[in-house]
Design a protein that fits this description.
Blueprint (H helix, E strand, L loop, with lengths): L16 E4 L3 H10 L4 E5 L16 E2 L8 H11 L6 H9 L1 H10 L14 E2 L9 E2 L6 H14 L4 E5 L1 E9 L2 E9 L7 E5 L2 E4 L20 H8 L4 E2 L4 E8 L11 H5 L3 E3 L19 H13 L5 E3 L8 H4 L1 H9 L9 E10 L2 E3 L11 E3 L4 E2 L11 H20 L8 E4 L12 H14 L6 H17 L3 H19 L24 E2 L1 H10 L6
Parallel strand pairs: 1-2, 1-10, 2-6, 10-17, 16-18
Antiparallel strand pairs: 3-5, 4-5, 7-8, 8-9, 9-19, 11-16, 11-20, 12-15, 13-14, 14-15
Helix pairs in contact: 1-5, 1-11, 2-3, 6-14, 12-13, 12-14, 13-14
The structure holds flavin-adenine dinucleotide.
Length: 531
């Protein structure tokens, strides 16, 4: 007998809201919708397979004495390099205090001083101390531990772990269901859920790249599913590369938090020479994309790049940065006495499914929040610690919007499709995925040019022509969106750097929007080119 897909927990009735993803955005949205019954569908057990649990810095919130929404907004706009939607960013920043208050209510143990006030740290490109954190670099883990516990004790939330949403069922521009595969039951097992509201909270795209800080589940599958259903995708070309991933051959690469540089750690080459000061007046504290490019050049030229924390942090490393310390020690490097080898890694996607201020996508019945969404609040480059903020603010707005639109929940039927309805798709796609990831890092990475982007698109096209397995098809769709948007933006801005167009072009200082249908039309007009 097949095992029931539902965990044995008390449950009465079947809801009509399905949230895809069990990271911060998904769990926060589920809690905010409570007591309305919701289903959270997640490929990995909740709290795992989510970037949220790995966040080291914390959440930016202009709540300190003297800090203001205007100051946080100014920093966000400066980081976003001309493309921030100021109204979206202002709204996000203004909601920060209330959302931090909610998180405290769910039991998140943010650090406090002796008087009980929240302590705030300062991160690169923030004018003020405004990042709430937990025990040095443990913010993500602590936030997710508290939210997972809150979700587990909330009876209105049904969690389906091990189910990966791979396709949205759309009738015209109305999303009315989704198809998910059962990771435990083999690739031909599918679950069809009929829905009135789907909230995509499936995270980012880092794992489309060979070198990334993101978990394997961050592979763009949610964005691809939305695009295939016809949703508008915004700013897909803007991927942020973290300059200081720990380069010890681990996949994903552990992150050496920016706070280390904030504390005075320096970047040196193999000969021990600093090189950032020659490139930018702020040296190691220059904007992330500047540091990422300098580290990239040092790595590809063979000079190597290392984060030297010996003088700035030294013996206090283990206590002050326990996560980074553990990763280094596991690789045989003691960061108190040896420089840490580093490389840039795909870290955060500013682009994604285009949403409005309530998290609505361009398809009815489909909302998006967190990294999979593109609100415009980050522009071309995200300010440190603004993404967890965006996740909670927009997850709460989505919940509010759904509740307002559909105050009464409706019972719907669910059914598990039998094997055979879908082709047997158990082929091994690991070779194709590895080829894709290598091409994304090489051609759609820190430094891009037209020839490389065209080569990447040609490879994506070749792999897509042969692809049968939905997971591979989705990865290729997500990669195609990013590469095609990067080719279309013939300038450099924020996280997007074109060596053939190294400057800003004021005429292109606008957000980008595309659909898969646009790309198909373009490809049909120019059959000799990939796009
Ligand atoms: C190492 C690291 C450190 C970071 N540090 C910070 C920081 O200090 N401050 C900050 O603001 N931001 C930070 N970020 C970015 C931030 O963590 C993410 O942007 C944010 O957590 C995204 O939250 P999310 O809920 O949208 O996605 P995630 O937390 O990634 O959750 C996505 C969820 O969706 C699931 N999923 C994915 N695809 C599917 C599918 N098809 N079907 C079902 N489930 C699916 C995943 O398993 C997961 O449960 C960091 C990121 C990393 C990787």
């Amino acid at each position: 007998m097949t095992e029931s897909p539902f965990p044995p927990r008390s449950w009465s009735g079947i809801d009509d809201v399905v949230i895809v993803g069990g990271g911060l955005a998904g769990l926060f949205c589920a809690l905010k919708l409570s007591p309305r019954p919701v289903t959270v569908l997640t490929g990995a057990p909740i709290g795992e397979g989510a970037s949220s649990a790995w966040a080291q810095g914390g959440i930016a919130a202009a709540i300190g004495p003297g800090d203001t929404v205007e100051s946080h907004l100014a920093d966000t706009i400066a980081a976003g390099d001309g493309l921030v939607d100021a109204a979206m960013a202002r709204g996000m920043i203004a909601d920060a205090g209330e959302r931090i208050h909610d998180l405290l209510g769910y039991g998140v143990p943010f650090d406090r001083d002796l008087k009980g006030a929240l302590t705030l740290s300062r991160e690169a490109a923030h004018a003020e101390r405004r990042v709430v954190h937990v025990r040095g670099d443990m913010a993500g883990k602590a936030i997710m531990t508290a939210l997972v516990a809150a979700v587990r004790r909330t009876d209105s939330i049904r969690v389906l772990e091990g189910f990966v949403a791979e396709r949205l069922h759309a009738e015209g521009s109305y999303v009315s269901g989704l198809v998910a595969r059962d990771r435990r039951g083999g690739l031909s097992d599918r679950l069809f859920l009929k829905t009135r509201a789907v909230v995509l909270c499936s995270g980012g795209v880092g794992h489309l790249y060979a070198v990334t800080t993101n978990p394997p589940e961050a592979n763009g599958e949610g964005m691809a599913a939305a695009a295939q259903a016809g949703a508008l995708i915004a700013d897909a070309e803007f991927v942020q590369f973290h300059p200081t991933a720990v380069d010890i051959g681990r996949d994903p690469a552990p992150l050496a938090t920016e706070a280390l540089r904030g504390e005075g750690a320096i970047i040196v080459d193999r000969a021990g020479a600093r090189f950032l000061a020659d490139i930018h007046p702020d040296a190691e504290l220059a904007p992330r994309d500047v540091v990422a490019r300098a580290v990239h050049e040092a790595v590809v030229s063979g000079r190597g790049a290392f984060l030297d924390c010996r003088k700035a942090i030294g013996a206090a490393f283990a206590e002050r940065f326990p996560t980074v310390h553990a990763a280094c020690i596991a690789a045989g490097i003691d960061p108190a006495i040896a420089p840490i080898p580093i490389a840039p890694a795909a870290h955060y996607h500013m682009g994604g499914v285009h949403v409005d201020g309530s998290g609505r996508t361009t398809l009815s019945g489909l909302w998006a929040a967190g990294e999979v969404a593109s609100t415009g609040a980050h522009g071309a480059n995200r300010l440190a610690s603004n993404s967890l903020l965006e996740a909670v603010v927009f997850a709460a707005r989505v919940a509010n919007d759904i509740q307002g639109l559909m105050p009464n929940h409706k019972l719907v039927r669910w059914s598990q499709s039998g094997a055979g309805e879908f082709a047997d798709l158990s082929e091994d796609v690991s070779g194709a995925i590895a080829e894709l990831r290598a091409a994304m890092s090489r051609h759609v990475g820190v430094v891009r040019d037209a020839a490389g982007l065209e080569a990447a698109l040609a490879l994506i096209g070749r792999l897509a022509a042969a692809a049968r397995q939905p997971q591979l098809k989705n990865a290729l769709t997500a990669a195609r969106l990013i590469a095609a948007a990067a080719l279309a933006r013939a300038e450099s801005r924020g996280g997007h750097y074109r060596s053939d167009f190294p400057e800003h072009d004021p005429a292109q200082a606008r957000r980008s929007f595309l659909t898969l249908a646009d790309l198909d039309r373009k490809a049909a007009r120019k059959p000799e080119a990939a796009e």
